[in-house]
Amino acid sequence: MAKTDVKAPVTKTASENGKARTALKPEITVAEKLVELFRLQHVDSQVDRIKVQRGELPLEVQDLEDEVAGLETRLKKLQDELGEVEGQVSDRQNMIKEAKAQIKKYEAQQAKVRNNREYDSLTKEIEFQNLEIQLAEKRIKEAKAQIDGKKAVVDESKHKYDERQKDLEVKKKELDDIIAETEKEEKELQKKSSAASKHIEERLLSAYNRIRSNSRNGLAVVPVERGSCGGCFNSIPPQRQLDISSHKKIIVCEHCGRILVDDYVLERVMSEK
């Protein structure tokens, strides 16, 4: 009797079973993708509102900080230069004292000389020290004029520095007050934005960020309002409005490139608490 070949049942591996389950998993619909995108836009717009509330204050604070730092550097340099000139005056005053002491010594020696040659030599030394004194006095006079001029510049720079420092403190307080009021809300919104981003596929998220960065008002996803784009307000043809409401594919505005959504998507997001 002929043997009958019996085939053993094929057992699927855990990996194959996992792939099978993945293949059976329904793909997210276009409508849900649009809801996720508009939800992200709604959160990001609230973050933008907070940033607008701060206005130009962060930039003003930064500019003032840079200006104050520059004034502080300049003031220190002027003070160093002033100290250097004052040091030169002090050195020359000490030189005059030493020269006068030398003159007294030479005059005392003149009274004890034995010949004219020694006397003449001491006389020349006295004359040289007197010339050194005259030159030092001239340099001191010039330096004091410089000191007066530099002191005036230092005082002016110090006054300007103090004014800018006060302006900076006022602006910083304004900014800190605004940040204190909105910090908690902004952090919560940032968390919501990060969470919403995780539900959007990378390709769509990249397109959203690109459109948003190119838009002055930060809007990448906008509703159709009265037959017009909610971003650029250009009219949308009736057939294109039907395509948007059918949710078969993602539609962008032909004029501004923003992603368009209908009332269904708008109501889904705005009804959420």
Can you give me a brief rundown of this structure?
The protein has a domain at 55-184: Orthogonal Bundle (Helix Hairpins).
What topology does this entry show?
Elements: H1 14-24, H2 30-54, H3 57-110, H4 116-197, H5 202-213, E1 221-225, E2 228-229, H6 238-246, E3 259-261, H7 263-270
Parallel strand pairs: 1-3
Antiparallel strand pairs: 1-2
Helix pairs in contact: 2-4, 2-7, 3-4
CATH architecture of the domain at 55-184: Orthogonal Bundle
* Unreliable stretches: 1-12, 17-25
The Rg value, from CA coordinates, equals 43 Å
Q: State the assembly state of the protein chains.
A: single chain
| Average pLDDT, all residues | 87
How can the largest sheet be summarized?
A: 3 strands, mixed
Distance between the termini: 77 Å
Helix and strand succession? HHHHHEEHEH
Report the sheet-strand fraction. under 5%
- Structural class, by secondary structure, is mainly alpha
Structural notes for this entry:
Helix content is 74%, strand content 4%. It has a domain at 55-184: Helix Hairpins. Mean pLDDT is 87; it is low at 1-12 and 17-25. The chain has 7 helices and 3 strands; from the N terminus they run αααααββαβα. With 273 residues, the protein is mainly alpha-helical. Helix 2 (30-54) runs antiparallel to helix 4, helix 2 packs across helix 7 (263-270) and helix 3 (57-110) runs antiparallel to helix 4 (116-197). Strand 1 and strand 2 (228-229) form a beta hairpin. The radius of gyration is 43 Å and the shape is rod-shaped.
List keywords for this structure.
273 residues; mainly alpha; Helix Hairpins; three-stranded mixed beta sheet; 7 helices; 74% helix; rod-shaped
